[in-house]
Design a protein that fits this description.
Layout (H helix, E strand, L loop, with lengths): L1 H9 L2 H15 L6 E6 L4 E6 L20 H7 L9 E6 L5 H9 L4 E4 L16 H4 L4 E3 L5 H17 L4 H9 L1 H19 L5 H5 L10
Parallel strand pairs: 3-4, 4-5
Antiparallel strand pairs: 1-2, 1-3
Helix pairs in contact: 2-6, 6-7, 6-8, 7-8
């Protein structure tokens, strides 16, 4: 799919790394979420993915626990004392309450997120929690574009698969029926690539027709 490949090549490196992390998580039957952290000079400090449903993990990361979100796993990689102080976090999905708390506590000044999550996204909580206002990072997101759209669909499809009667799936099927239906179609096409663990993310693009991502 030419449009997707062109969109991919235009993404900055942190976004490409974050989406690659999300793809790894999805192939491991975990929520397709990926995170990359940069220091103030733009150097990559950490990158990680969601590991809630897998026992495999890297040093300093969590796995097989509901705490093993991508942002948490990226932040755990950073030592307390480091010359590369984390400054910016890139996330493929809007951080939840737990992840936003960790981002604020760790003093990151910028947060970039690709897609909004109206069910669990917590980027607006600073408006109702005065002590956090001063520490709240500068927000950049949600973004538009086909890559973000794909991973929004995979995020919704994951929750529909893992807990079809759960609150996330119900919320999206009720309030965003168009997105919910499109997510099922995207997930069905992507399924063979998901099961082939050696499949690179860019290989998936050619399988998706442009019409399936239209809003």
């Amino acid at each position: 799919m030419t449009g997707l490949r062109e969109a991919w090549e235009k993404l900055d490196e942190p976004w490409q790394l974050a989406f690659n992390q999300a793809w790894i998580a999805y192939q491991n039957d975990c929520c397709p979420a990926g995170t990359v952290i940069l220091d103030a000079a733009g150097a990559i400090v950490a990158q990680a993915n969601n590991r809630v449903r897998t026992i495999d993990t890297n040093a300093r990361e969590l796995a097989d626990t509901s705490l093993a979100h991508a942002a948490i796993n990226a932040l755990t990689q950073i030592p307390t004392v480091t010359q590369h102080v984390p400054d910016a976090l890139y996330s493929t999905i809007e951080p939840c309450l737990m992840c936003m708390g960790a981002i604020v506590i760790n003093g990151l000044r910028r947060l970039h997120f690709a897609t909004a999550d109206f069910f669990a996204g917590a980027t607006s909580l600073n408006q109702s929690y005065p002590p956090a206002v001063e520490l709240w990072p500068k927000l950049d997101g949600p973004h538009s574009g086909p890559i973000s759209s794909i991973f929004q669909c995979l995020y919704v499809a994951f929750h529909a698969w893992i807990t079809p009667d759960g609150p996330v799936a119900r919320a999206y099927s009720t309030n965003r029926a168009d997105l919910y239906k499109r997510s099922q179609a995207v997930a069905e096409i992507v399924e063979p690539y998901k099961r082939s663990k050696g499949t690179a993310l860019k290989e998936v693009f050619s399988s998706l027709p442009e019409t399936i991502l239209s809003r």
